[in-house]
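User: Working on a comparison across species. This one is Nitrogenase protein alpha chain from Rhodospirillum rubrum. Can you predict its structure so I can line it up against the others?
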Amino acid sequence: MPHHTFKCSECIPERTKHAVIKGADEDLTSCLPLGYLNTIPGSISERGCAYCGAKHVIGQPMKDVIHISHGPIGCTYDTWQTKRYISDNNNFQLKYTYATDVREKHIVFGAEKLLKQNILEAFKAFPDIKRMTIYQTCATALIGDDIDAIASEVMDELPDVDIFVCNSPGFAGPSQSGGHHKINIAWVNQKVGTVEPEITSDYVINYVGEYNIQGDQEVMQDYFNRMGIQILSTFTGNGSYDGLRAMHRAHLNVLECARSAEYICNELRVRYGIPRLDIDGFGFEPLSDSLRKIGLFFGIEDRAQAIIDEETAKWKPQLDWYKERLRGKKVCLWPGGSKLWHWAHVIQEEMGLNVVSLYTKFGHQGDMEKGIARCGEGALAIDDPNELEGLEALEMLKPDIILTGKRPGEVAKKVRVPYLNAHAYHNGPYKGYEGWVRFARDIYNAIYSPIFQLSALDISKDPIPTDQGFLTPQMISDPALPAEVRSSTVLTPYRGAYDTISALREKTYPRFDAVPVAQ
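Assistant: Here's the predicted structure for Nitrogenase protein alpha chain from Rhodospirillum rubrum:
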């Protein structure tokens, strides 16, 4: 596999080893780009930091918790309400976030008193919330504030509250993945085993690496409930603080996102002997295989198969309808974390899409290995790309759609490439059988949208005069309009544009009325 050098990065030769093009019959030992390394100076990385990985990805989805960042207010603002981690307590964790608002004087004289004051104010403002997570940031880590001591002091003064301290400043790792590791291990060390739960089933699991993006967790929870499985805790989407303290009593750790949460699964296996089972909630076949594996572990395969048969019969006809219309469309798979490899093969097999590129900003080489293995020859794999490299890749690959985050997605829209939000979704949830059809529908609507078709028309030399007022197609076709006006040259450009729009719409946007409707 040859390394690929972007023209915009020729002045940074180190970037050469971070992009490769998959060749024919290559084994993965020779085709992996470098990954999970410190950002190369001058490359203008769009990565998140370790603090972001700890708070934004894993900590913030806990629903009944006051999340407070000890540092400048900008750190908190950057990680607030940027994903749709919904919860069943009216989204408390999304509505409110807290910062100690550390400033220059606090850097000089210390900010421990400020932190304690903020903690007490937060508990007073929300007396019903008795749990808190404090996140360390770069500024307060560098001046040496002892957050653990302050937390212990407050818990002594307020015996009914409990506080978790996450020491994961931004510089704690090469990217946000370093923060994933920090908070995983800290939670096991500080909190797991401190609450004894009520066990109500013979089959008890921790659902790990699930963040309830637009209701993903609720979809999977429904399947587990139908199988008679008790979800002891969800790490961490819609998860309760005390429920997560009881993770040590589960019979099985069911792991969805191995990039962000495999660390806690491995620790729970070592310390409490709880086995780990990796699953995949995206796509009909991966999801079906996952339910079968869980059923096999507990000896309830028949319950799993009943769900698979019912859901497949209900939703497969709609998925097939979209597959016929998406077949051969080119997609750049530029998401975060495990979606790199959760989606790579299944969107090709079950939706007919052709993955022409994949990238990751914070993934490890193991993530890239699994993603590349599931792509076809010629796919461009990039580690930690910047905006200019992304634009150059779009010009070279000319994809029909991009599945990525909001920042690169908005850039892609400027060059008339539609995108779907792979992090927070457009119209999720995307997990489950119905969710996978919903995902296919969003891809279809994005690719065939008349807006993107019309955006390619060059109107820089539009002959329509600007001093004649505005006439709509309805006005032009109005019988009351005098015949001499209707046939005038002034209206000709309007009529031509209207005909062009109509033709484009019929040509590029297949009608939806043929979609089979689930009963």
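For your comparison, note: The two ends are 48 Å apart (CA to CA).

User: Helpful, thanks.
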